[in-house]
Description:
Layout: E1 5-13, H1 33-40, H2 43-50, H3 58-63, E2 65-68, E3 75-82, H4 85-124, H5 142-153, E4 160-162, E5 167-170, H6 184-201
Antiparallel strand pairs: 1-3, 1-4, 1-5, 2-3
Helix pairs in contact: 2-4, 4-5
Amino acid sequence: RDVPYRAGVPVLLEAAPVHLDPDAEVEAAETTVDTEASMVVSEAALDAVAADYADLDTGELRSRIQVTAPANTRVLRISVADPDAERAADLAQAVATEYLDVRARYLEQRQAQVLASLRTLADSAPAAAQIPDLERSSVWSNEDLELLIESVLSMPERAGRLLRPATVSPGSRFMEVPVVSGAIFGFVSASLFVWFRRRLRNW
């Protein structure tokens, strides 16, 4: 189907907290581009947008959306196609805004899960002074975990922000929700976490 216009909005995302499994040494649960895209096209995000347009339901709106991400960045580009240029821009802006609301709720839940895991570990972790030197590289101390708890609590509360208003370009034949797959966001979060842990071990 040919659509005259496609409007795109770049969104800069805040990193998601990594997940710790108390039964594993360290496990970083990835937040992939696919995960982010699923939130963009979720009913929670799209129902509110479609409700403002009498001729557009959630399914039709979903079919007009594309989600892509440049490699090695935390930028997500959300674009929406429409026969009208101004409406394409309005739709892209509205979808991006609703997506950030959905993501904020997701990050709040994820932070609670991470904190619960860390506190479970901290409750049973030995003090640093009780850990033999040879085991310091493989055993979490209570002090290590308390520092990690503080770092999670100090993470930014917002889910991200729009880098600029929607820009419109001539449209073309498009397919339903093409999504660039990858582990960009999980890789960034996991890398930061591993770096932080190594710093702790060197103190």
